[in-house]
UniProtKB/TrEMBL annotation, chains A, B, C, D:
Protein name from the UniProt record: N-acetyl-gamma-glutamyl-phosphate reductase
Main location group: cytoplasm
Cross-referenced Pfam families: Semialdhyde_dh, Semialdhyde_dhC_1
Similarity-based family: Belongs to the NAGSA dehydrogenase family. Type 1 subfamily.
Function in brief: Catalyzes the NADPH-dependent reduction of N-acetyl-5-glutamyl phosphate to yield N-acetyl-L-glutamate 5-semialdehyde.
Underlying gene: argC
Positions annotated as active site in the UniProt record: C149
Recorded GO MF terms: N-acetyl-gamma-glutamyl-phosphate reductase activity; NAD binding; NADP+ binding
């Protein structure tokens, strides 16, 4: 398999390289970058010296068609949508790690992203790549919209129960906490080491662009509009997302019942681990790996369900899931290149 | 003023010393410790060398009565309650940083703390030392139950609106995030550096002992039982608490109205800063200081209020507030010894 | 006393404000900034809200002469030297935290800083503000060149023995480790949180601009040129410098003798603590404070002296020492505004 | 291949499991622990859930002989030496990650470790497993003494030039900086998160037990006793060692000459990367990987060589190198199971 990556100098791209250089079915990697053409990737990322010895090239549809079987976009918002319509005319498979194709309504995209994306017709051609929930659809796709980091952790936590009659879908509150790598490689005062270390803050309260992505796929299953509160926070660590979800119960239900429901929902899935009651998940338990660890509490005092979900934002929340999607697309074992133990400690 | 501190080797005590050695009205500091009698504090805490040159002594009521005007308990649960009844017979003023006197029902204490505390009669003699809300009661007290760290951040965030008709008191969700110093000085695997660094987790989901403390003082103002969800999380930093509170609105209300309400509630208070909409609080903005920074969002989409509150858990959440209480008790300027700028960066 | 600060938005300036707002003799603070005129400091640094309510102004000699008694330059290299000649014509006292006046030879400055500074005549008018070594000279100065962070930690470690016959001055190796705040507030990839966290590196090996500053003041005491190796490293923490110094012994000498020599050298100095053999210094022991902690090892196997020195780079290594110099200049108690306990933990 | 690990709950063991579960030639893993017999490893390390499902067993020579081809000791000092003599009577291959067999003189071991090890006869049977320097000897061994973390980084930095006439072997100074995982999993106040975060310190100055190990293998090549200064420091990060080495030059020599010498010394070695002059190594460049990155500076001013070496202390400094040794022992490709990209960021 010949692979191309657009956006070669971002964290998404560099994490794709980590998995692709460890992947049995990948023969060749091309890197595309508009700003760094001609630069060797190991000059940008010295840790890759002697591992991947590739210079970045100009992205053109012609080059892709000639050399690449599957193309990853690891680009900022509003880039991939300019290329994908032309690529859909070819046989190239596309996995887009950006948000451009995750929503089906361009107006909603523009409202939250403050940018433009493709038209509704193109958006409809994308399959949402939540690999542990939609593997069958993904296998058929040409274009995969790889989920956002928060939506991955949140949807894996909520989809097993979102259509159950014992919950109140209007009560959902999602409190997210992320490590700093989620903010990407671009410099800003807020993630300057001296000011981010020993610091935490909420951001984008009520306005984070992952909100409509979560709402869309919850609503798809309930066939009813859903509005959630999603509040992200940034905490002083490089990798890891922990999402705490609160849902009102409308009926008495035991923790065992809910646990069984989750275990059954994920029983075929290699990368979702439903934890026992005594064992709360920690982001370090999934560090550098493609796992999502889930935990359920039924709070009898308040009649609420509390779900905790942890992932590595750069792996299951981005590049690892993208590789999993590539494996599904090509009929490979879903875990190929990904069955690495988390790094601990 | 002559001051005594029981529990001389914990973080609460050492932080008290930082403020007391910078306090104009304090002449003398005595340290009491059962496990470290005879040891100089600077042998336990080398940073105090040449600053405080005191050996720890055995705690006895006699010694206290003879030498001390105000006595701080910076002890684990279920210690102070064994001493305070006898001390209440004397003229000594007492500020208890432990949880022993924060609840008024010993049965509730035992249910959440899994330990014993004083009888209801003694509990009733304590004034709850939330200094920015109850300064007048505090001035009259002999025994002050200094609030917990999470309750301080949470109650300062909720008390201005808890009795308003536009909120649903049954909908309150409190998602707390703390730095590691909140876990104290005792060693445990969970706060071992190599495993806590680059890691976060929820803990005590549905069972944290600060829950009934928060509920008590919310209920006191509404005259109606209140049950909240409180979920604490630990994040890899030493100091700082950020609490995110979610409350359903029962009526349309503008952010400006709520903002004005908060500003008016705290307009005489030196240590509470209500932030503008564009300026989300960060724990580093209060680092090492006695400030609480508050921020309000009204989310029109979901009809919820989101309140963010930050404090330094060891200062406003413990020792700083205790000093503020001491100042109130002695009719001093509330800010004496405490008007230090936060440490930034 | 009326104080002015040039470079109002850097870490040096903000740390000066922390101490000046806690200083009894300071009535008024002016902030000068070329890039942020008209901006309130609390809009740049929200932690200062309600503490210092000052807008930044344009720097002119006229304004300074009219309003300011002592002026701090907390500016990047090659700024202060453009202003100071004119200011030396006035009665204003100047404390320059930049490196512009620390060397006495403009050619050496240019060789290491790759920038221009004042002429030799002006450089000679500056007194080097190593407050714990040259207090008497400092009291007489109009212009103080406040020492660099590494030179402060290093010179305090070496000056007590540099002129002793039992050491080989040609053997000195200085291995420095700094927290990230030493790199300042300007953004760069190297101190981007996601890449600096869980990372350390050496930098400017053999070429750091603090090298000639250290060499100058060692040589001044020995009256012989001295060349040292100085290798700085950056480690993932915000505040703190630890310097490890290696010096060959030319004669057998006991640790006790050396210890006594250091204790005697610093016996009148409030801010230098010479540690016992069993008690190695830690940067956290001086966190946020103006202390320098020193430790001596005599290694009999290799016949070398190993000196460890720790400071807070922003306090003793910059703004704290600058305040100490201001106190000396004005005949105040040297510790005024500075006698705060380190923040621990 | 059937593998056994003694010391199943330490960081060395858990890091071995990360590599062994990703190793093509390994069929079966046994874990031995005296304190945790019967416990499943995923109950100690939840990150291993669904990855390795093994309970810890009692260590007996019989069990090992029956089930295991190669046995790793990842134990504290003075454990492995009690078992290895009996195991040397069998066909089992042994890789000892502890220090027990790294020195050839039991008296030197006792002087530095303050513990007992095997007799000189047994010590002589061990081959020192510095895999990038002694691959041929290692291939023949039954017992491999896997090097310490600091000695690995230091010896890889010094062995290429230790026997050259242009250096002064009596001038060597080694300044080491380590992340906290090097201190292991046992709890202690010094590595309690709240006190280790935002902190650094030197430790074991002049007395660290890795000193004689470094000196032994330097001396072996020069055939002359060598005494070095080795000063370790601990810095607030989990993984990574950076060692800075200072060596006096006795003759004028260019950086290019030294660079060529290093490149030639390591030209066949997959895991040692000699960096260009402009590219200083960072510990994050080798994070989680088996690489050692080296950098050379020739300081003309002081006539000294400065060598910087970085490794991941748990990988190249322990378990990764142990796997590399296992590969060498079994005639496998040296990189099998280890050719993973460093984790970045």
């Amino acid at each position: 398999m010949r692979v191309g990556i657009v956006g070669g100098t971002g964290y998404g791209a560099v994490e794709l390289m980590r998995f692709l250089t460890n992947h049995q079915a990948v023969d060749k990697i091309y890197l595309y970058s508009q700003s760094k053409q001609g630069t060797y990737i190991s000059d940008v990322y010295p840790h890759l010296a002697s591992i991947i010895n590739v210079a970045m090239e100009e992205l053109t549809v012609d080059h892709v068609v000639k050399h690449v079987d599957v193309l990853f976009f690891a680009t900022p918002p509003a880039v991939s949508y300019q290329w994908i319509p032309a690529l859909l005319e070819t046989d190239v498979k596309i996995i887009d790690l950006s948000g451009d194709f995750r929503l089906d309504d361009p107006a909603v995209y523009e409202a939250w992203y403050k940018k433009t994306t493709a038209s509704r017709d193109y958006l409809k051609q994308a399959v949402y790549g939540l690999a542990d929930v939609y593997p069958d659809k993904i296998k058929q796709a040409q274009l995969i919209a790889n989920p956002g980091c928060y939506p991955t952790a949140t949807l894996l936590g909520l989809l097993p129960i979102i259509d159950k009659s014992f919950i109140d879908v209007d009560s959902i509150i999602v409190d997210g906490k992320t490590g700093v790598s989620g903010a990407g490689r671009s410099l800003s005062q807020g993630v300057h080491y001296a000011e981010m270390n020993e610091n935490m803050r909420a951001y984008a309260v009520g306005s984070h662009k992952h909100t409509p992505e979560i709402e869309r796929f919850l609503a798809e299953k309930t066939e009813k509009s859903i509005f959630i509160n999603f509040t992200p926070h940034i905490v002083p660590m490089t990798r890891g997302i922990l999402v705490t979800m609160y849902v009102n119960l409308t009926a008495a239900i035991s923790r065992d019942t809910v646990q069984t429901l989750y275990e059954s929902f994920y029983k075929e899935r290699a990368f979702v681990r439903v934890k026992e009651n005594h064992s709360l998940p920690e982001t370090k338990h999934v560090y550098g790996s493609n796992y999502c660890d889930l935990h359920i509490t039924v709070d009898q005092r308040t009649n609420r369900l509390i779900i905790v979900s942890v992932i590595d934002n750069l792996v299951k929340g981005a590049s690892g899931q993208a590789i999993q999607n590539m494996n599904l697309l090509y009929g490979l074992n879903e875990t190929e290149g990904l069955n690495l133990s988390p790094l601990y400690p």
